[in-house]
Amino acid sequence: MARKIIPFTKPECPGIFCEASTCVLEEAARDGVKTYVQRMEERAIQPCLFGQGGTCCRNCSFGPCMMIDDVPESIGICGATPATVAARNFSRMVAAGAAAHMDHGRETALTFLAAAKAEAPFEIKDEKKLHFLAELYKVKTDGRGKKDIAIELGEKVLAEFGQQEGVLVMLSRAPAKRQELWKKLGLLPRGVDREVVEIMHRTHMGTEDQDYKNLIFQATRCALADGWGASMIATELQDIMFTTPVPLRAVVNLGVLSEDHVNIVIHGHEPQVPEAMAIVAQEPEIVAAAQKVGAKGINLAGVCCSGNEVLMRHGVPIAGSFVQQEVVLATGAVEAMVVDVQCIMQGLAEVAKCFHTELITTSPRAQITGATHIEFHPEHALDAARALTLRAIARFEKRGTARIPDRKMDVVAGFSHETINHMLGGTFRASYRPLNDNIINGRIRGVGAVVGCDSCRVESGLVHTTVVKELIANNVLVLVTGCAATACGREGLLRPEAAELAGHGLREVCETVGMPPVLHMGSCVDNSRILIAATEIVKEGGLGDDISQVPAAGCAPEWMSEKAISIGHYFVASGVFVVFGRTFPTTGSKDLTNFLFKEIENLYGGRWAVESDPKEMARMMIEHIEKKREALGIQEKKERVLFDMAMRREL
């Protein structure tokens, strides 16, 4: 099994900023392997201007009706206006994105309950968080074992998915002022699934809700059921079962694939399969089976958020992001790619056929024509993981020439909101006080969240990293998740050494603590960690009494999925300024876009924006952060004062 050394040349492939990916794609293309790059070139696929702007309606058989704003006769056959149609389409994107997270959350809750009942081979590893959630859900803990507590907690959490009335419990974690606002506006989600169903009803042809503002109202309630409901449930229960992440070192990029190990790539979003694979990969019997076919062992690598889940908890390396998934297979070094749900390209099956690779689907919700389907059930998690691993081992001897670029980068990941709490204050004085103080004194200007997918419509990774570099150079501490985090990792921004690129104040804080200026907080569903981090900043005091007052902003520079719309909207509804890159799905309607970009701030304290240029995007975020600092009266940087004993006594 030969290893082909890839010569690094100037990148030529459209949509790829990563040098390693470019070289693999060029080599693969010469061998006739087709990926999304060739599909874009051959078909010259361009976005539909009506669909991109949200003014194409296909909700009944009269159409599709494509509309142009400001043209009086350009309305639907039923009379629907461009604003109504764009609001319907936006709301449906929120519903679809939220539903993806809700299904993830439900699957996690079911697995958690099975683990609590000893019906699945996972454990309760974070008892502190178990007790915290039990208190939140009013589960009695005194004199009870963790099994009984976990079973009752699991049942209560699972009931929220089908709940028809009441309020989701996780919303009680938001700042009191924010909860009061949601209650006043009637935005409190009543149940997880109910809000998606109501959007689909409201956007059905002929339903009375034909007012774009009222449609966005329900989209907001649905988005909150995602961020402060299903996503938060998924993150917290996963932490209890699989441990709450703490900072650890790992590596990213295509060079993490091994020439002398069986390479198994896990791809998707739900952590159950990756967690089981990570456990099994180290078993002596599995290692012996790999050695029997000439390999040194099992090399597990991740793609997308399934990879981020095991990166955060086990240090499993990340081979690539969403855009890189076909590139990973095009190396010819992967024995098996095991996928579950979300962000999985159907083109993987065709790329896999060009090599010895077996593409294996594991979820009944996500099968692919041409792939092997081996259904995964939590109660048989380890047995299924062993079977999947043995299939990969059997492929090792069939490997041909492998194109593994000698490119990988060290990263530090695992920054949960609890980690931030301990990182600056230590074990005995864990607190957000040092973070708040450094924002107040101006060393840290504010906080920026850079999240979301990467896209084949831009130079993937370049937009993310340009925004991040601009932010940290201006003393903005950056939080990243998902594929945005992977892009930053490839660029070396997730290492403490990246503090050299930060402004003086942020650099001083990072070097004192030994942390990167860019903190990897997990997968897409873990954006809920950022909500809690923002809430902790509010609770600590000194920076207002609501998230909308905190000097913070968020962006999704290379967004592409409906999940990104739901994520962005629950941040807006939580009081955050959110910028999306390249395009926005309502720009075909001036009325709706004006509402989302301007008027909505009067309701929620947060608003949307769109910007293609990454430096301008960073400038917009910094400008917003400065406005918040000015409103708090902390716009002037304070000089550092060393207290003498008399000053300490007075304090």
How would you describe the overall organization of this protein?
This protein has 651 residues and is α/β, with parallel strands linked by helices. It folds into 3 domains: 174 residues, Substrate Binding Domain Of Dnak, Chain:A, Domain 2; 150 residues, 3-Layer(aba) Sandwich (Rossmann fold); 224 residues, Rossmann fold. The chain is 47% helix and 11% strand. The protein contains 25 helices and 18 strands. The strands form 5 sheets. Strands 7-6-5-8-9-10 form a 6-stranded parallel sheet. The termini are far apart.
Short structural summary:
47% of the residues lie in helices and 11% in strands.
Low-confidence stretches: 1-14
What structural category do the secondary elements indicate? alpha/beta
In the CATH hierarchy, the third-tier topology of the largest domain is known as Rossmann fold
CATH class of the largest domain: Alpha Beta
For the terminal residues, how far apart are their CA atoms? Answer: 69 Å
Strand content: 5-15%
DSSP strand count: 18
> Measured on Cα atoms, how large is the radius of gyration?
24 Å
Q: Average pLDDT value?
A: 92
Helix content: 40-55%
**What would the principal axes of the Cα set say about the shape?**
globular
Main pleated-sheet profile: 6 strands, parallel
CATH architectural group of the largest domain: 3-Layer(aba) Sandwich
- Walk across the major sheet and give the strand order: 7-6-5-8-9-10
Report the total helices.
Answer: 25
The total tally of domains equals 3
